[in-house]
Amino acid sequence: MEENPRSPRGIELVKDRIPSGVEFEMKEKMIENGSEMEVPDQSPIEQVALTVPVTDDPTLPVLTFRTWFLGIICCASLAFLNQFFGYRAIALSVSAVAAQIAVLPVGRFMAAVLPTKELYIPGTNWNFSLNPGPFNMKEHVLITIFASAGSGGVYAVSIFTIIKAFYHININPLAAWLLIITTQMLGFGWAGLFRKFLVEGAYMWWPANLVQVSLFRALHEKERRPRGGLTRMQFFMTVMACSFSYYVIPNVFFPVISNLSILCYIWSKSVTAQQIGSGYYGLGIGSFGLDWNTIAGFLGTPLATPFFAIANVMVGFAVIVYVITPILYWNNVYDAKKFPIIDSALFAKDGTEYNVSRILGKNHEFDEKAYNDYSPIHLTAFFAVTYGVGFAALSATLSHVFLFHGKEIWRQTKATLNDKGVDVHTRLMRTNYKPVPQWWFLIVLIVMMAGALWACEGFNKQLQLPWWGILLACALAAFFTLPIGIITATTNQQPGLNIITEYFIGYLYPGRPFANVSFKTYGYISMVQALAFLGDFKLGYYMKIPPRSMFLVQISGTAIASTVYYLTAWWLLDTIPHICTQKNSNFTCPGDTVFYNASVIWGVVGPRRMFGNLGLYEKQNWFFLAGAVAPLIHWLLRRKFPNVKFLQYIHMPILIGATGNMPPTRSVNYVMWGLVGFIFNYIIFNRYKKWWVRHNYILSAGMDAGVAFLAILAYFSLQYENIGINGTGQADWWGSNVYYPDNCLVASCPTDLTVPKYDDISMCPQFSS
After folding, report:
1. What digits encode the pLDDT tens for the residues 35-61?
2. In whole angstroms, what is the distance from residue 671 CA to residue 288 CA?
3. Nearest Cα residue to 700 out of 732, 740, 673, 737
4. What is the rounded distance in angstroms from the CA atom of residue 685 to the CA atom of residue 692?
5. Domain assignment of residue 406, yes or no
6. Which residue range(s) make up the domain with 512?
7. Assigned domain for 601 exists
């Protein structure tokens, strides 16, 4: 297990375990608070020191014609594909790795055939060349940044999706576009406030970026093939080819192997056994998947996550899913037996699915009398716990950062303001390139703020959110960017603000679902976008990309991607009948269904009737206190027992918020993610360090690329032609059970026999005719 590089003794701890061949040359001293701290000429983080080169060639052309041409095409293409795939019953994300691989031969071909003559823009002094020389790594990085803007998703699309598909209201197209573009770009404003700490700080290392660095080096650096082995490029191509070939099996011919639940095959009619064993609808005990998309499709690649973070996630998952949820369910807390054990759907008091239309009045606002006459909203035991741990994770984040990073933040803030306390990568960037002026960020912030106010206050206030709601959401996002940014930059895990923003506006402005989801998006996603911007900026520091070029590409890519996502979603919503709401359809919009349910819980009914004095789940508020106290207990134990090693690896916000991605992430995804992470980032990292350094991140990139390319090919060759079961492109046999992926047909049945029979549980043993 690796040491935690975020500890105050970070430099010494990491330095002690740097393997031979990686030396730290101490050339500078930093005077801080009257004491001297050594600043290494290499990153103090072992993984960074082993992966990122400390060289730079500032003469390489960067913002070339090739960068813009290929970048825009990749950005727009991935935005279209990901929005299209996002509405599918079995959602699939095409990562930027696919574009990263595809553009390399195209870029080299353009360098070989395009003319080198400079072209002048009429009426200006500007000139450029279509071919400034060989296709280089820095161009490739910027094209990939363009592509990542197209692959990242646009959360605000879910707002007008639920408005049009679930609430059946027509929203003004300009209002919808303004909503999307402003939520995606507002975070750029306050990202500028924290870039010195979260980008230039040596201990903010953004683990996921190391996959990209390794892949870029494998694709561009010349390397001699070792005897009996492969170059990194050869290894990558081999892995990608194998991943591509293998993914035909789970994606087309035998999808069931993506989620095998052994207990469901042994006890095919036992509800309890399937609740325990189902990896999709249950606890996932004994479930596993032989599919890279099962491993990395929801939680990201485990190969890029430090093992201490993986361990915290899996411990938190086990406690919440294997201990707390079963105790609540089999003790019938909150009438849990009337509902499935794990589900994000909403239910009435008799166990039937909740009919939201019965509690909506004019203008789709809350009708209290209808609600009292019908039923309070009931949640499954697991869904109720999920909201509780969401409360705890937020308070734990603030408490943890204050206790464990408060002094460090203060020290590094002073050091950063004095241009000290940085590593070699930041010093190279400061030496060779002009920084991005702060007023660039302020201009983006002002323009986007104006657009957000127009979207919400104009257009007959269709979005229901008043001006003060915009300002409050932005304040929340800006406040949490630093503490959550620290956790993301050091653990590759990101606690979310979605629950607290829903809770906040639900109390202040209840009964308005569109205001609630709009506030949530401005408060949550603008922070996520700020962190995405900062993470990409850190990649730019590792790859020595001029900061101003990075800024222009990020802004342009975000604007293009947002517009393409918007146009694609609008087209699908207008052309596919009953999209998102028709069962047994290929377009069931799983993510948007969860989003819609949240809009009902927090927006229509409101937190007071769910988690307040009028609600069934008032006790969940104690999770706020528990989350705040947990890091304090951990901190005190660390001080009392400084030599107990395992205490150094506990990270309370990650442990408590482990199941923050459930749903739509399932138990089997966590099980496989944790298993693969343990194998590669604990066993191989500690026992086969040389192999890990050379191959780990390349392996991750190759697996991602193979899955992405096969998914694209399968769509256009099979699904586009409506081939396979229900047009999914899958072979029509028992191994392609689309709607029950693990063949656990009764795992979602209630166990309370008083529940009336309805369509969705007609197959349950106690209700079957």
Report:
1. 334 444 677 777 788 888 888 899 999
2. 7
3. 673
4. 6
5. no
6. 65-202+422-616
7. yes
